[in-house]
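Two proteins follow. First one:
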Amino acid sequence: MAGIEKIVVITKKTPLEELIERFNSRSQARFYLEHMGVSFEEYAQAHEAYARAVQRLQAALPSGVKSQFIERGFLPTFQFGERDLVVTIGPDGLVINTAKYLTHQPILAVNPDPARVDGVLIPFTISEVARRLPQVLAGQIQLRRVSMVKAELNDGQALYGVNDLFIGPRTHVSARYFIQHGKKQESQSSSGIIVSTGAGSTGWLQSIVTGAVSVARGFANSSLASPQPEAYRLDWEAKDLYFTVREPFTSKTSQATIVFGRLKPGEFLQITSQMPDYGVIFSDGIEKDFIAFNSGTVAKVGLADRKANLVAPAPKIDGRFTRNARIPR
């Protein structure tokens, strides 16, 4: 079976399950939502649609291959095997959250509810799984290799991101650090730094660009045009990264000349923390899964040495599937 020994399915809690955990019962969750003027039925319907999709996925798993289901919250401590096939069933964020904990294992991303899930990173619906899984296990697979960003610290720790990394304060205070890009270097005070990949170039980065242009337009009382996303969008496989400094502040001790740039292959940002006990680095918007970035810690940020491997719909050549990627034996 092309070297695959186990299928690991990654699930996530639904918003209704999270509310039930918060309020201890379904009835209390319902009371809370209705008291706030929010429809409980929408939460219930979304929950039921997800539960049905998980059941259908479980039924589609081949009996001859070991399988295991784990919830997203266990990802930071779960040990994936070298020959695992990872199946995510959830929104795009679940794919991103999962990918950074893998090395080379392929991800088969399944959209459990196309009516509610955008599925930008998710090429397969639940109805396709029963047909697609045997093809993947037989090696009839094409992978889309998505570039990642990596922050490596001088204490040996490292953190990967599929969309972006945030380097800055864990609360709404100013981040203080020393930044170096190429031959330029300076001390800065800001709300933090975002380093975006190709996959993330139309995510957080787009929000920063939109806000910056709107503020500049307002103060200049001009018709300054916002750049179209195509102007800064990178391919998922791109080897370049963007970095942006959020809300840089100039003072006697802080400058703001290194606020935006593009990191080419082999280029890095070097950032030295000057935050006594509140500096953090986290990826892909998951604030709880962070590494500390306090005074004296140096982060080297650049293109990661590994990629996220997403199973893509395989094109056919002369009626046969291509076989350009296999799981290591």
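Second one, unrelated to the first:
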Amino acid sequence: MKKYHVALSFAGEDREYIDQVASRLQEKGVKVFYDKFEDTKLWGKDLYTYLSDVYQNQAFFTVMFISEAYKEKLWTNHERMSAQARAFVENKEYILPAFFDTTVEVPGVLKTTGYVDLSTLSPEEFADKIVEKLEDSGVMLVTEMHFAYSEYARADVDFPIRLDDAVSEIVTALKSYSWYTQSPAVIRIFKLDWSEISPDEAFVLGRNIYQCACGSENRAMDIMKNLRRELAKIPAESAEHVLNGMLYEVYFDREGKFRGAKLKDGFLSELFALQSVPKYENCINYIQYVLAPYRGSLGVLPNKTPEILKVRVKIDASDPPILSSIKCQGKEQLITVDEDADDPAWRLSYRAFSLESLPERLLELWKIPRGQLEVRYDKDLPATTKVCLPKGKSVGTLKI
């Protein structure tokens, strides 16, 4: 899954320039894959496989620093081919070429593609161009993060469980998937001495309250349905960590991996209801920062000014009328599906449905909170009009 805003691909001979670019990017709040910053993580790994995954799957953009040395190196060619495989599959901007020498020809990198000539730019100036590119692509960069949680909290399957420890006992009970065990544990949370609870512990408790609510445990569901009031029962700083844990649980699984299209959205609207509450602004900034690398697969992010996903639908006159196009931000969302293929939107492709029911179906499919989806049709038809999708077409996972 995407973990970096940008991955830097370069030859060692050019490291002096790239080192300054990477440092500037870090200062600007960019999550950057640069080998010097990852030396401990890379230690002992199968680099051929690991780097292929980074350049193909884990970054929003790959920046290629092209020089004669870059063209000749085995490792840079491996990185280049991994990035090009991603660009080919997605068929959109992913590789950002930057030339130390514009006469160098690199396989698959065409001069008809927009590029940057580094001979005219200092490392700092070029880093600022990368920042501008990210921001133009909808990425929110945060230079100073108010919160930081350990890997054990973000991958709470590894969260340490200690004997005779109140939080450990509660977390174990919450993970039991038994309502009879979970319910008293949820009640115990609000009786804790919060002055003794660490940020990591509060974060993990928030994650597990949310997962219990999504599993239909009554007390946890009551908390989510009255979230603002319930959070007010605990100290403000602890409440922020609990809310961060809940928000994180929506988007990331027990191993800290992004859930993709399978968000845990049982109480997404309740969480988004707090996005414009001033006291939780730092929480909204936190989850925006964490989600920035995954922006292209999420319709809306929590935002103090609620985002609206705008959908434009084209209807072809027929009997019944056919929805021939469904676009978000100019990108077509209709996909071709084989008869036996898995179709998450089968309720739409299986039979006719009314125009008034389409927004609700899209909310459910794309995990969008109520009130943050706007659907407009190119024809003025009654809301009760029955329509259908073209034969062999369905609505795919959201791409923006």
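SUMMARY FIELD: The first helix runs from residue 15 to 27. The first strand starts at residue 4 and ends at 9.
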